[in-house]
From TrEMBL:
Protein name (Swiss-Prot/TrEMBL): Conserved hypothetical signal peptide protein
Position of the signal peptide: 1-26
Stored Gene3D superfamilies: 1.10.10.800, alpha/beta hydrolase
UniProt xrefs under Pfam families: FrsA-like
Keywords on record: Signal
The keyword NADP is assigned to this record: no
UniProt organism field: Klebsiella variicola
Length: 346
């Protein structure tokens, strides 16, 4: 009998916290070519990438990359997969790796930046707005429905890390999302409630709101440490390796390199009111939860699977930690994802 990790094993460092490295290449597996190694900045020769922008219902412009197979011919609408990035990341970190590989195998994909992050609009920058994050997926569906390359009746979603929780919230109220897969999901509401257990943590954010209202400078919190020390814990080291090294470091134009991944302190407590798993049993469309078997975030996928209705599947990747599902092409189960979306976006 498998031992279940408790959701509370994960810390806020993980919660708030990819350049193809030299020597990385592509390997052919069962006639399907995938990148290998740490491949965050993988650049496919078999896709066409278009920068796109579209507005959400609140007038905030969302930036994304629409990725099509290079062999695509007009007049043959494709199934599409919308891809959401990890918490604190941007579309250039993890999302574009998945977007290109899936597009290489016949899907149109859309990797986008959440409102307030990356190239997307919205102020204050790096705000935490769970409702807008989940709505971003429906806004992406709205947009794809206007594109002639897309079959609007065959749209799915892939949510990485925190986007797993946001996409579940979106799917509960948007039946246009036909199928959903998550990778290394973190349910940010439970995670925040686990860590913000005293009134002082909440009060600090409220006091900072007053500072910013009066014109003061923003303060950032959580995210990935900018320097490792002898006291750095394993989670901090895992995230540092991805976000602060050439493996996955990326600074959007106009952003401060030292504050990437870090949400605003004044906004962070909003996660305490976020409950995406409530009502998940009402989703009757296909769900696939992918997580590493040694990942500290594993418990979130197990909890979602336990509470969800059929059709559903929990897929454990042997020997994979949390950030392996960001960019470790040797461990990301691309074949499983391709099969899942091929079967459910017919």
């Amino acid at each position: 009998m498998k031992t279940r990790r408790k959701i509370t094993d994960i810390s806020l460092a993980l919660i708030l916290s990819s350049l193809l490295l030299p020597g990385a290449s592509a390997v052919e597996i069962n006639s399907i070519t995938f990148p290998t190694g740490y491949a965050n900045f993988y650049h496919s020769q078999h896709v066409v990438i278009q920068k796109v922008r579209f507005s959400n219902p609140y007038g905030i412009e969302i930036a994304g990359n629409l990725v099509l197979p290079a062999a695509y011919k007009p007049g043959n609408p494709l199934p599409a997969i919308i891809i959401g990035h990890p918490m604190g990341a941007v579309k250039e970190q993890s999302s574009m790796l998945y977007a290109q590989v899936l597009a290489e195998h016949g899907f149109a994909t859309l990797a986008f930046d959440m409102p307030f992050w990356g190239e997307s609009g919205g102020t204050p920058r790096q705000a935490v707005e769970p409702t807008m994050f989940e709505d971003a997926f429906s806004s992406a569906v709205d947009y794809l429905g206007t594109r002639p390359e897309i079959d609007k009746a065959r749209i799915g979603v892939l949510g990485i890390c925190a986007s797993g929780g946001y996409s579940i919230s979106a799917m509960k109220i948007d039946p246009r999302i036909r199928a959903l897969a998550t990778a290394a999901m973190v349910e940010m509401g439970t995670a925040a409630r686990t860590m913000m257990v005293d009134e002082a943590a909440v009060k600090a954010g409220v006091m900072q709101r007053e500072v910013e209202f009066a014109g003061g400078k923003p303060v950032y919190t959580g995210g990935t440490v900018t320097k490792l020390t002898a006291d750095s814990n394993p989670m901090q080291r895992e995230f540092y390796e991805f976000y602060r090294t050439r493996r996955g470091e990326f600074t959007p134009e106009g952003a401060d390199k030292n504050h990437t991944t870090m949400p605003l302190l004044s906004q962070n407590a909003k996660l305490l009111n976020f409950y995406p798993f409530n009502g998940i049993e009402n989703i009757k469309r296909p769900l696939l939860f992918i997580t590493g078997d040694i990942s500290m975030s594993r418990g979130f996928s197990e909890e979602a699977y336990k509470r969800a209705s059929e059709p559903k599947e929990l897929y454990l990747v042997k020997g994979a930690n949390h950030t392996d599902m960001y960019d470790n092409a040797d461990k990301i189960p691309f074949s499983k994802l391709i099969q899942f979306f091929q079967q459910n976006l017919r």
